[in-house]
Design brief:
The protein is mostly helical. It contains nine helices and two strands; from the N terminus they run ααααββααααα.
Length: 251
């Protein structure tokens, strides 16, 4: 079964051997900077630092990083359009874009892209099993970890089902014309929904049978302790991001 590009990149990342807490500190710190700092130039600086750390310091290939950003960027763009377009009812109904609404749309988009890039930094350097094990060490309730692990596995089951059904449809020329493509897409959606419902019921029964005891038994390879040097670098980077953002905003 093929995996997600982000997941494959995380397993192959040179940062895989770093402590989860160290990488989480950098990622969550950048997320807070993305949310709290002014969108200009704060959002731009956070995005550059996050992507630079992922591609440069962590040596993650650029292609999976850009692929992972595509879907969130599309949703962010749709949300920006809804913020930019204003509808007024007085004195007459009108639809348009004002300078203020366009500015708000750019600010929201900047915060969103920066936050997404910061989260992606953790995603491309840390496999999910390591994150779940880190949550277990933080005494997060086992039931929450079990549900997260099941949803993670469920995602791959769905992707495999979609890939298999689509390959079968393609072999039968199901996408040879726009009309057939629309029909095949509808059949694909219906089949995946049915399979999803069935698989979800089975997973729920499995969890109930285990009494949420041990849905994830695999242990992470990463046993390395936290690196004080790395944490000092993280604090320095976050401090530089805050300082540059505030100075740039005041300039």
């Amino acid at each position: 079964m093929q995996g997600l590009a982000v997941d494959d990149a995380a397993w192959a990342s040179p940062w895989r051997t770093r402590a989860v807490g160290d990488k989480a500190a950098l990622s969550l710190g950048l997320v807070l900077c993305a949310l709290l700092l002014p969108p200009w130039p704060g959002a731009l600086i956070v995005t550059v630092v996050a992507l630079g750390a992922a591609v440069g310091a962590a040596r993650t290939p650029l292609r999976p990083v850009l692929r992972a950003l595509t879907a969130p960027a599309a949703f962010i763009a749709l949300g920006a359009v809804s913020v930019a377009v204003t509808v007024t009812a007085t004195p007459d109904w009108s639809v348009g874009v004002t300078a203020d609404s366009a500015r708000r749309a750019l600010e929201v988009s900047g915060h969103a892209i920066a936050g997404t890039s910061a989260v992606l930094l953790l995603a491309v350097t840390t496999p999910m099993i390591d994150i779940l094990s880190g949550l277990r060490r933080l005494r997060v309730p086992q039931a929450c970890i079990d549900v997260a692990a099941v949803m993670y596995r469920f995602l791959f089951v769905l992707l495999s089902s979609v890939r298999t059904i689509r390959q079968s449809q393609t072999a039968r020329l199901g996408y040879s014309s726009p009309r057939r493509s629309l029909h095949s897409a509808g059949l694909l959606t219906a089949a995946v929904l049915i399979k999803s419902w069935d698989r979800a019921s089975r997973l729920e029964a499995g969890l109930a049978g285990r009494e949420f005891g041990d849905a994830v038994s695999a242990d992470p390879v990463d046993r390395q302790r936290s690196s004080p040097t790395f944490l000092v670098v993280v604090v320095a980077v976050l401090g530089a991001v805050v300082a540059l953002s505030l100075l740039g905003h005041r300039a």
